[in-house]
Design goal:
The chain contains ten helices and eight strands. The chain has 256 residues and is of the alpha/beta class. The chain has a single domain, classed as Rossmann fold, CATH 3.40.50.720. The chain starts with 5 loop residues before the first helix and ends in a 19-residue tail after the last strand.
């Protein structure tokens, strides 16, 4: 696409009015491809806002079905969606907002056997997964494919958001190895306030748009921490770890 039609100009007029975006930026968004991993608490606002912003191709991967307990935070799904695959439910909701977007469904789990082939098709990956195995798999795959990764995690009243870019520090530079399963509670065990997912997922969506357009100051080399109970944002500077097993001077991880 190299020109906006009248309908697109009207739909995206508030984006186009921004000098950082304009017509050229909107066309770039419409020509962009983003993969969202996870159609849950983080994936919901991510999907809705990237769809509304006009990201032209959005892939969504998740193997789970909608459960009643999801609905306090997974706002892309409805009560009538209970029992449906989350990917199909989410795409139905997003399509109703913007039918001009191309949605690519992956109603399956991201694994070592398919991660490279799926991720390689996209410009940027947005990680909304809820487990350490998948986070490390996405991080490692993006590193080998030289893809930008915008990742987030939530629990209780807290959120973490970070952006990893080629040549910058990776997830393993911050967390060298997954913690033992009994050390970090899941959302099932520890709970989560739904709006915390909204804050984190919306920040992720903003970072994805900025990275696609090359505007503003992103979260590359920074870890943003949000505490909703005290309404505090903290940014921590991150550096490449020379001992990182993936991107360090003597890497031990050389393939997925």
């Amino acid at each position: 696409m190299n020109k906006l039609d009248d309908s697109q100009i009207q739909r995206y007029s508030r984006n186009i009015t921004l000098k950082e975006i304009g017509n050229k930026g909107q066309i770039k968004l419409l020509n962009s491809k983003v993969l969202i991993v996870g159609a849950g608490g983080l994936g919901s606002p991510l999907m809705l806002y990237l769809t509304a912003a006009g990201v032209g191709t959005i892939g969504l991967i998740d193997n789970e079905k909608v459960d009643l307990s999801n609905l306090n935070r997974q706002i892309i799904h409805k009560t009538s969606s209970i029992g449906r695959n989350k990917v199909k439910s989410a795409i139905d909701s997003a399509s109703a907002i913007n039918p001009g977007i191309r949605f690519l469904p992956y109603p399956k789990k991201l694994t070592k056997s398919n991660a490279i082939s799926v991720i390689s098709k996209y410009d940027i990956v947005a990680d909304g997964s809820d487990n350490f195995y998948t986070r490390y798999l996405i991080n490692d795959s993006c590193y080998f494919l030289k893809k930008t990764l915008v990742s987030a995690a939530i629990l209780a009243f807290d959120a973490q958001i970070f952006t990893f870019k080629p040549k910058g520090p990776c997830y393993r530079c911050i967390f060298s190895a997954p913690p033992k399963e009994d050390l970090i509670p899941s959302c099932v065990e520890g709970g989560v306030l739904g709006s915390i997912a909204g804050v984190a997922g919306t920040i992720q969506a903003t970072e994805v748009v900025k990275e696609l357009l090359g505007i503003g100051k992103g979260l590359s080399s920074n870890l943003m921490i949000f505490n909703g109970l005290n309404q505090e944002f903290t940014k921590i500077k991150i550096k490449n770890d020379p001992k990182c097993e993936l991107c360090g001077k003597n890497p031990k991880i050389k393939k997925i």
